[in-house]
Structures are given as structure tokens and as C-alpha cells.
């Protein structure tokens, strides 16, 4: 049974002014997230991903549909029960949302006080958490004395305080510079691997999905347009909006503009070969072209690695006898994705 | 100047009365305003107790009573003061009416200062399972404490101003002293003596407020 399960979930907001249409922030979404996964949800701002993640810990209430978290109904439950549920779900935020009037120590201790832990338990747990995020020496500092990366690490420690099963990360790295982003992503990876916590990552940065997530769902206009293993979505995106996101990190098939530039610089036929691990290797393609007497030049593309699995698109300019090129491409077509660019 | 010296005991008595009237009004009005302000903040739509009807009602009540000039409010609320304190005149009636007027004024200041707390911070507290009362007491008020202290300092000064009309219903204080012994006796030196004491009082309290707020805000 999945740890988090959404069935036909819809969330509408009443119109801001009379006469405006009702806003469907989430439109009939179904989603399963298994325990132990790092599940990425990507979309442009306004796609509904922040609302979606808030439905999981009931900060927002679904208009219709069913949400089950760890075997418990989240929809139509009294507030008191939701508060117990929230002890099992940590959350971190883009703007960190630390309590500015409290020290780092008291920020991390707060959820434990809410949960009614004893003084000794709190003492031990906060010490352990600050060690885990590497901020033991900042315990008595206030949030404004910390850098962005440190603030988010406090946020992570606070979210983990009550040992939740799930961590929701809402654009957790979007306010950070690239280096700090990677430091926080590494920490989140440790949270998943060492503590076994399931993480739901909301982002508009494909880079975050690529380095962190195991599965991904692409959101557009309140719907999930595509979901699957990160490797599958990256190596073979099906929907237009998925392709746009993938193209931000993967140099794949040249766009029409790029193609016309390539045509100016190169003679011959321009062909894209798409490799996925398990397909025939690049070496065999190059050997076959060479054996047939076809000259080739690499003009566009790149190879990507996702968790040890490689894929990529290489675009070659081929020169030689037309008939020979055509027949060579035909023999390869059964084993590898070949696309000639007109 | 020689007219002032025999009045020195009355000046100190008036100073004490002003502090007494303003201090108690700040206490009662401060508490009332804090509760009403929290009520306004939390019932606003989208807030933790969002309720359009309750917010609308509170909002209208505050808007009706807040702009009434205090000397008129004092006369209009006299029957109410008599019902509650047993007397319509003197310092007790003044303290009651001043507390009531301050409640409405302070509620807006409290509401505005609470609105400066980032909604995300409240959301973070909700996400760890904190209940509403706990959020108000342990997050909302501490997060807004610096500006709240400055707001209450501002109100202290306003109360000193308002308390000056106490004499019109038989109350005492520096305002009454200045009018009774200065203005009506054609003795500007006495009037100015009261003014100087008020200025010193306000300066001292403003300084205290600034120091406290700075300590809370750590800057």
C-alpha cells in the first residue's frame, strides 16, 4: 500500500470578486507515493504544486476526492486528529519560515513541546538533530544571524524533530544560491537514505529533480500531465510541458532555430541518435557508420547520468553516398532511436 | 515664579494622579485592546479563525467608537461609567472611560502589528501540529513583540493627552492642574510647569519603550 495516496482530488478556491470564475487549483489529481521514495513534483508557478503539497498535511482542505496518508484519512477529519497526523509529516519552506523571536535551539524544540515531550527528551532530541544538520555551534543564535543555507538546515532539523515518516519540501532550495542548493540537496538525500524518510519535493527547477528525486510528476494547470521514474521522464518525455522542463537540463534534439544554425555550418544530412542504457552503445554506431564509409561529425547533444543510468541525444552531420547513408540508418533503426532532422 | 512655589505640593499630587489614571487605563485598555486586536487579526478571512461575520462585526464596532473625540465620548459614556464604577465623576469614572476608549484604539495598533508577522511563520507552526491558542500565545505575540511595545508606548503618550480633560468630569491630573491653577488664574508660569512635567514624563516613557523594543528586536 502506498504511503501517500490521492484519488481524484480537486481543490477549488472561491472567486476573489463576485462574477470571477472559480479557480481550480487542483483538478482531479490521482497520485501514489511509496514509502522510501523521493518524489518530485515539478511545474511552473501557478501550476498548483504548492497547493497539492499542502493537501497532504491538510494545511489546505480538498474540495473533493480522497487523501490517505499512512493508512489514515486526511479528508473530513476533525482538527484535533489532523494535529496528531501533522506530527508524522514534517514540512520545509522556500522562505524557511523560522520563528524569528526564538533561538535555533527553541525553533527545533518547538514541535517537541507541541507534542508534549519531556524536558529530557527534548534536550536529547534537539542535540541530536543539530548535530545531524551540522549546526550544534549555532544553538543559541537567532535566525537573522544565519545564512540562507543554515536557515534551511534549521528548518530541516525542526521538520524532523518529531521523527516524521514524511518530509514535504516546498521549493526548499529556490531562495538559495547554486552551491548552497547542492549542500541542502545532499542533506535531504541523507535524510532519505539514513533516516528512511519519504520526501515529497516541490520545485520548478529540473536540476533539483535530476539530483534528488527517484520519481517525478509534471504539473500543468492543476493537473498531473505526466509521471514516472525520473530516468524515463528525462530520457523520453511525452508531454510538451515535460519536454520544456527536460530541455532546461538536457541538451537533446536541437530546436528549429538551432537546426537552421547547424545547417549553415554543416553540409550533409543531420541525424539525431538517442541512447538509453540497455540500447546499443555509441561505439557500435560509430563503427557501423565508419564501416559503411559514411563520414560523420558530432554537431549537437550530450550524455546525461541519472543515478548511474546514462542516456543522451547525439546529433551528427553525415556526408557520403545518399543511398548508403539511408540503408545504414535503416539497419540501425531497429536497435536505436534514429531521427533524421528535415 | 513666586506663584508656582506654593503650588508645588499640588503639582506633585497632579503628577501622581496622571500616572495613576494613565497607568490603570493602559493596563485595562491594554488588555482589552490586546484581546480585541487578536480577535480582529484571527477572524480576518484566511487567518487561523477566519470568520467573515465575526470580523465584520468587530470591525464595524471599532470603526464606530474609535473616531469619537474623547471629551464627547466621556460625556456620552457617563451613564455606563456610573453603572460599572458606581460614579459618573472623578478619577474612577475617568479610568473606566479612558480604558474603554483605549481598548478600541489599541485594538487597531495590535491588529496592524500582528499583520506584520509573516503568514508563512504561522503556517510553519500549524504544520508541526500546534493548535490555535498555542500559536497565538507562543508564536504570534512573541513574533510581533517589538512593534507591539512601540505601539503601547505610542498609546501611553495618547493616554496622557486624553487624560488632560479629566478635570471636566471632576478628575485630577496635570491637565486639570494646568487649567485650574494656570489658565484660570492667568498664570502662564504654572501652565508651563505642568507642560514641562508632561514633556519629561513622555520622554522618559518613550525612552523606556525604545530600549525595551530594541532589546526584544536585538538591534
What is the average of the pLDDT values of chain A?
90
Find the CATH superfamily of the domain at 22-171 in chain B: MetI-like
Q: How many H/I helices of chain B?
A: 10
CATH class of the largest domain in chain A, named: Alpha Beta
Helix segment count of chain A? 12
Can you tell me the CATH topology of the largest domain in chain A?
Answer: Rossmann fold
Order of helices and strands of chain B: HHHHHHHHHH
SS class of chain B:
mainly alpha
Description:
The complex is a heterodimer of chains A (342) and B (219). Chain A is of the alpha/beta class and 342 residues long. Chain A folds into two domains: 169 residues, Rossmann fold, CATH 3.40.50.300; 85 residues, Alpha-Beta Plaits, CATH 3.30.70. Helix content of chain A is 37%, strand content 28%. Chain A has twelve helices and 14 strands. Chain A has a six-stranded mixed beta sheet with strand order 6-7-8-3-9-10, sandwiched between helices. Chain A has a four-stranded antiparallel beta sheet with strand order 2-1-4-5, covered by helices on one side. A four-stranded antiparallel beta sheet of chain A has the order 12-13-11-14. The longest helix of chain A has 18 residues. Chain B is an all-alpha fold. Chain B has a domain of 150 residues: MetI-like fold, CATH 1.10.3720.10. Chain B contains ten helices and no strands. Chain B is elongated, with a radius of gyration of 20 Å. The mean pLDDT of chain B is 92. At the A-B interface, helix 2, strand 6 and helix 3 of A face helix 6 and helix 7 of B.
Amino acid at each position: 500500500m502506498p504511503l501517500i495516496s490521492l484519488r481524484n482530488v480537486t481543490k477549488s478556491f472561491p472567486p476573489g470578486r463576485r462574477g470571477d470564475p472559480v479557480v481550480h487549483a487542483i483538478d482531479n489529481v490521482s497520485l501514489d507515493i511509496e514509502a522510501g521514495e523521493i518524489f518530485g513534483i515539478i511545474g511552473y508557478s501557478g501550476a498548483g504544486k504548492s497547493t497539492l503539497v499542502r493537501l497532504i498535511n491538510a494545511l489546505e482542505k480538498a474540495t473533493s476526492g480522497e487523501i490517505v496518508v499512512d493508512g489514515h484519512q486526511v479528508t473530513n477529519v476533525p482538527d484535533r486528529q489532523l494535529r496528531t497526523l501533522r506530527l508524522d509529516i514534517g514540512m520545509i519552506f522556500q522562505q524557511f519560515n523560522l520563528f524569528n523571536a526564538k533561538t535555533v535551539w527553541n525553533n527545533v524544540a518547538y514541535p517537541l513541546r507541541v507534542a508534549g515531550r519531556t524536558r529530557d527528551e527534548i534536550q536529547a532530541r534537539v542535540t541530536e538533530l543539530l548535530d545531524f544538520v551540522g549546526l550544534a555551534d549555532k544553538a543559541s543564535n537567532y535566525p537573522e544571524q544565519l545564512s540562507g543555507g543554515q536557515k534551511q538546515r534549521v528548518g530541516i532539523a525542526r521538520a524532523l524533530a518529531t521523527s516524521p515518516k514524511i518530509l514535504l519540501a516546498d521549493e526548499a532550495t529556490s531562495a538559495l544560491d547554486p552551491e548552497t542548493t547542492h549542500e541542502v540537496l545532499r542533506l535531504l538525500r541523507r535524510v532519505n537514505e539514513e533516516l528512511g524518510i519519504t520526501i515529497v519535493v516541490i520545485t520548478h527547477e529540473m536540476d533539483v529533480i535530476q539530483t534528488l528525486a527517484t520519481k517525478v510528476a509534471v504539473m500543468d494547470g492543476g493537473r498531473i500531465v505526466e509521471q514516472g521514474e525520473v530516468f524515463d521522464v528525462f530520457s523520453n518525455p511525452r508531454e510538451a510541458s515535460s519536454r520544456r522542463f527536460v530541455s532546461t537540463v538536457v541538451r537533446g534534439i536541437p530546436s528549429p532555430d538551432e537546426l537552421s544554425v547547424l545547417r549553415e555550418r554543416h553540409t550533409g544530412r543531420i541525424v539525431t541518435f538517442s541512447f538509453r542504457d540497455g540500447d546499443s552503445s555509441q561505439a557500435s554506431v560509430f563503427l557501423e557508420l565508419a564501416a559503411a564509409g559514411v563520414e560523420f561529425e558530432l554537431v549537437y547533444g550530450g550524455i546525461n547520468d541519472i543515478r548511474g543510468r546514462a542516456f543522451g541525444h547525439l546529433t551528427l552531420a553525415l556526408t557520403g553516398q545518399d543511398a548508403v547513408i539511408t540503408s545504414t540508418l535503416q539497419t540501425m533503426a531497429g536497435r536505436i532511436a534514429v531521427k533524421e532532422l528535415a | 515664579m513666586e506663584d508656582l512655589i506654593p503650588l508645588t505640593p499640588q503639582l506633585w499630587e497632579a503628577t501622581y494622579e496622571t500616572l495613576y489614571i494613565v497607568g490603570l487605563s493602559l493596563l485595562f485598555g491594554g488588555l482589552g485592546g490586546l484581546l480585541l486586536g487578536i480577535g480582529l487579526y484571527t477572524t480576518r478571512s484566511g487567518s487561523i479563525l477566519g470568520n467573515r461575520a465575526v470580523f465584520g462585526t468587530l470591525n464595524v464596532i471599532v470603526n464606530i467608537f474609535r473616531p469619537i473625540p474623547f471629551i464627547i465620548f466621556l460625556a456620552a459614556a457617563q451613564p455606563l461609567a456610573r453603572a460599572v464604577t458606581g460614579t459618573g465623576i472623578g478619577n474612577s469614572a475617568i479610568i473606566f472611560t479612558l480604558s474603554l476608549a483605549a481598548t478600541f484604539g489599541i485594538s487597531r495598533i495590535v491588529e496592524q502589528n500582528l499583520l506584520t508577522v509573516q503568514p508563512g511563520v504561522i503556517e510553519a507552526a500549524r504544520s508541526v501540529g500546534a493548535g490555535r491558542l498555542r500559536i497565538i500565545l507562543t508564536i504570534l505575540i512573541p513574533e510581533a513583540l517589538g512593534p507591539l511595545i512601540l505601539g503601547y508606548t505610542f498609546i501611553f503618550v495618547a493616554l496622557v493627552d486624553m487624560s488632560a480633560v479629566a478635570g471636566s468630569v471632576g478628575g485630577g491630573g496635570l491637565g486639570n492642574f494646568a487649567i485650574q491653577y494656570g489658565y484660570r488664574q492667568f498664570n502662564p508660569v504654572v501652565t508651563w510647569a505642568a507642560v514641562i512635567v508632561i514633556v519629561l514624563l513622555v520622554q522618559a516613557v518613550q525612552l523606556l519603550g525604545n530600549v525595551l523594543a530594541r532589546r526584544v528586536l536585538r538591534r
